[in-house]
Amino acid sequence: MGEFTVVSFFTGMFWAMVYWVVAIFQFFVPPPRKDVSGKIVLITGAGSGIGQKLSIEFAKLGCSVVGWDISTDGLSKTGSLMSDERMTSQWHPYKCDITDRHRVYEVAEKVQEDVGCVDILINNAGIVTGKKFLDCRDEMIIKTMEVNTIAHFWTLKAFLPGMIDRDSGHVVTVASGAGLFGMPGQCDYAASKFAAVGLTEALYCELEYSKSTGVKTTVVCPYYIDTGMFKGVETPLLPMIKSDDAVNQIVDAVLRNKTMLLMPRIVYFLYYLKGLMPAKTAFLTGNASGTMASMDTFRGRVD
Ligand SMILES: NC(=O)c1ccc[n+]([C@@H]2O[C@H](COP(=O)([O-])OP(=O)(O)OC[C@H]3O[C@@H](n4cnc5c(N)ncnc54)[C@H](O)[C@@H]3O)[C@@H](O)[C@H]2O)c1
Ligand SMILES: *[C@@H]1O[C@H](CO)[C@@H](O)[C@H](O)[C@H]1NC(C)=O
Ligand SMILES: *[C@@H]1O[C@H](CO)[C@@H](O)[C@H](O)[C@H]1NC(C)=O
């Protein structure tokens, strides 16, 4: 698409620099939040933690919220936490195991009929093994990749075509800091999250390249959050993020079309530093701060 010439190179670089300046400006003066009232938001893993709170927040903003989870108990809990009549009338829970692609396509069609076209897709469901590489059971490695990465392909296949047709929509990937940094006890988890980050970045480029710029992407990479998913981990320097705080920041990033959200803020700096440091220096920095040992006390959800 388009031919490479000296002129195309310099025009491209000119706009690249313009957007850099715009981004610096927007760091100080954030762009306005978009109005999402009346929009349809689909959230996977809506029966617990971040997904549950995101469901409530988007319902408060006047969205119709479609919640998917394997846990029907979790979904009913989410519904019961929606305080008023208006919110509960806009809550549409569906039991769906996102690792079963046939089920994903089937439930996606049902959603289309019952509620309508999904405007905002939030791939949030996730699981973690939390063991050293050689202690990870094969089944858990496969499951982790399936839930944290491969399921995103199925939900995207189901809902992205509609967004592209309307040149309007938003794909949100709840990845993790583990999608940018590796550490002991997270080999399968980090692999799945790096993959989710890569998928979203490549998709962002495809959308820009095809000039479907009405469809936005946001990838979220938080450090540990206190939802219970990482129960037991010890974080001597950086405290766990409060889930309400994480959810507020995620909603804000979506409403402002932010392409990438790292939490807490210092992670932007650490991510940049990692690109400059030798591997051993990066490792020793992580070790000195106690981060490398954080998974040693992991218990996770004791279901
Ligand atoms: N909690 C943290 O410290 C933390 C940090 C960074 C990133 N994240 C990511 O944020 C996301 C949400 O995490 P959370 O802390 O809210 O976790 P959580 O365990 O509270 O919630 C995850 C939800 O996903 C659902 N789920 C699991 N497998 C599923 C499947 N096959 N089909 C449908 N639903 C399924 C679970 O039933 C659960 O309701 C995850 O992707 C996680 O990796 C969490
Ligand atoms: C965000 O994207 C939507 C299109 O999806 C657009 O209408 C809106 O103006 C954008 N808002 C910001 C703050 O960029
Ligand atoms: C990592 O840090 C711990 C202290 O928390 C220290 O005992 C250990 O020797 C360090 N490991 C390496 C490889 O430097």
Plain-language structure description:
The radius of gyration is 20 Å and the shape is globular. The chain has one domain (35-297): NAD(P)-binding Rossmann-like Domain (Rossmann fold, 3-Layer(aba) Sandwich), CATH 3.40.50. The mean pLDDT is 97. The protein has 303 residues and is of the alpha/beta class. It contains ten helices and seven strands. Strands 3-2-1-4-5-6-7 form a seven-stranded parallel beta sheet, with helices on both faces. Residues 31-32, 34, 168, 214, 216, 256-257 line the site of one 2-acetamido-2-deoxy-beta-D-glucopyranose.
Topology:
Elements: H1 6-28, E1 40-44, H2 49-60, E2 64-69, H3 72-81, H4 85-89, E3 91-95, H5 101-114, E4 120-123, H6 138-166, E5 169-174, H7 187-209, E6 215-222, H8 243-255, E7 260-263, H9 266-276, H10 279-288
Parallel strand pairs: 1-2, 1-4, 2-3, 4-5, 5-6, 6-7
This protein binds nicotinamide-adenine-dinucleotide (NAD) and 2-acetamido-2-deoxy-beta-D-glucopyranose (2 copies).
Protein name: Epidermal retinol dehydrogenase 2
GO molecular function: oxidoreductase activity, acting on the CH-OH group of donors, NAD or NADP as acceptor
GO cellular component, one term: lipid droplet
